[in-house]
Amino acid sequence: MPNLKTLIPFAGTKEQEDRLREAIARYKGELGATMPIMQEAQEIYGYLPEEVQVIIAEELGVPLTEIYGISSFYAQFTHNPKGQNQINVCLGTACYVKGAGNILDKVCEVVGCKEGEITEDGKFSIDATRCVGACGLAPVMMINGDVYGRLTPDKIDAIIAKYK
Amino acid sequence: MSTVKVKVNGMQIECPSDATVLEAARQAGFRIPTLCYLKGINEIGACRMCLTEVKGAKGLVAACVYPVAEGMEINTNSQKAYDARKRTLELILSNHRMECLTCVRNQSCELQALAEEYGMEEVRFGTPKEMQPDIEQSTPHLIRDNSKCILCRRCVAVCKNLQHAAVIGPNDRGFSTHIGSAFDRDLGEVACINCGQCINVCPTGALTEVDSTYKVWEALADPKKHVVVGTAPAVRATLGEEFGDPIGTNAQGKMVAALHRLGFDGVFDVDVTADLTILEEGTEFIHRLQNGGTLPLITSCSPGWIRFCEQYYPEFIPNLSSCKSPQQMFGAMMKSYYADKLGLNPEDVFVVTVMPCTAKKFEIRRDDQSAVNGLWDMDETITTRELARMIRKTGMDWSALPEEDFDPDFGEFSGAAVIFGASGGVMEAALRTVVEILTGEELAKLDFVDVRGMEGIKEASYDVAGTLVKVAVASGMENAAKLLDKIKAGEAEYHFVEIMGCPGGCINGGGQPIQPGNVRNFVDIQTLRAGALYSEDALMKMRKSHEVPLIKKIYSDYLGEPGSHRAHELLHTSYKASPKYPGLEADKKKN
Q: pTM value?
């Protein structure tokens, strides 16, 4: 499950909240206002924690469960902020058949958090992605834009160590 | 009303033009299977069990939401429809933990009934028999096992559309989709009102009440305990349904006989404390009316409504009557008045109630509900369904049970108390007493019909000794929210308001016998059940709370007068605002 409970304490600022309320005011009353508001909220905060979803729910008069139903349905929304180092493990078809599932498991084990989550120190976040277009190098992962190909689980430790 | 002519399985019928294929088929005498459909509440055509062939339509249609049209030809039982339904059922079953024999809903499960009807001999997909339970139990009233959930969303729809709480919804996507609260918080971490309406509409065993019967059995087996039981007014109106009686049968006599046979030391009626409630609440109302107190006074019998008020409309807490619910008054009176009378140690008195309600399981452990020696007023409470299970377990033959009377120590009550079980009943009962007290004259007509019936919001006004008393009655929290919003906006003004947590009142409470979707959709079960109570009231000699000899005796011998210091100690309580997002608030405090 990619969308788990936010683990990092919420640290939203007054300025962010003002921007969110302004965005809500802009869309409020329009049919289908919820999605664009949630997208803007994610742009403002980088993710959609409970505190932010409560503001949206209360302002729109929509139950929190419905906002969360949407944010947990669509892959575009995340409930966790991104880490200083963002790890993206490709789970596209080519990578998958070349064992990307094992790569993802190993990355989670080495880093110490699950897919869709961020480590407690905020250093790493892990996401699974669709095809990144480097099938020739499968299985592939990217860390902050650096591409690592032809991976095997035993190579992961050394790669992650570079970012610690 | 305009109508259209349609053919169902070759039979020509005329049906309303706004009917669905499902309704037209029903009119022609054919039942189309449904799972997700609840009329007026959940009309989403999601489960695909009702797929039906309509001539000329592109593919099979979902009968529950597909509208009829002039000249339409419907075939409810074509091979194509049958095959499609059976395949749908097989796919649902492939992801349903099948432990039917040990499931609480064995033989009352809609999925099981359909599997039988469709001759489901095997499930070729998935590994349903190897699935593990997926249990969430964080509240005193409810257990959710998502391994039995078929994602029909009936619970989600009642929680939002009827009860205004909307604390559950479908989370995640695809195979991971499951019913839960936002951020997958436990139900105990969100503003659930414990009403149990979700349990009532669950077609399978995914939602059920927390079983309190084993604690009752334990107490009954303990020779040191003096175990008494009290039944709520609404239980007699529904218990028979569990044993095949028609909906609307008053089963009071058999219910009492069954309780005697279960071995209770005293079989009493919570109607007695319903009468006490009228005296206490009526006095409170008159006091507020005459002394400029906070109005409207709002009733406090329903613990589901109380939780709703505390979490969603805390600004109305000053309006709530300080009276405990009849159940809590019953517990307090058993451990004081009754224990004194029989010379029992209150600690040895074990008080059980049978309630139409799951919120009562929450209520018994609320703060400020222990009037005697720091003991809880109530020890255990079971639902109508749990009582039925206890009766079955002892092998009693329901049809052979005689009719018996409540025990005399605490078994005399008025018709006013009986109608507490239906929406508007508390208001009518209160008016019978309050009007006589205020006017000092006997009422010519005891029936306040304006506050009867199953409409969500009812209003009336009565000239009482020169004062125009305006009252309103709401049941179901969606209706309550509408009424409270009107009061808040200054669009309506009342003196006295009755609010019941469940739509239709306690007769439709979350602990009542479960009626399947195909009954709920086509039978007005609320009106039938309420009818059982109003007919009992009409036949009773005593129909006013303040005229019941036992009530007079309780006041003269024990409590003094309504609203006295002693009465307040035993029969009144307090409420406090509670967060709408309790889990989030708790986390904030932690961080």
A: 0.93
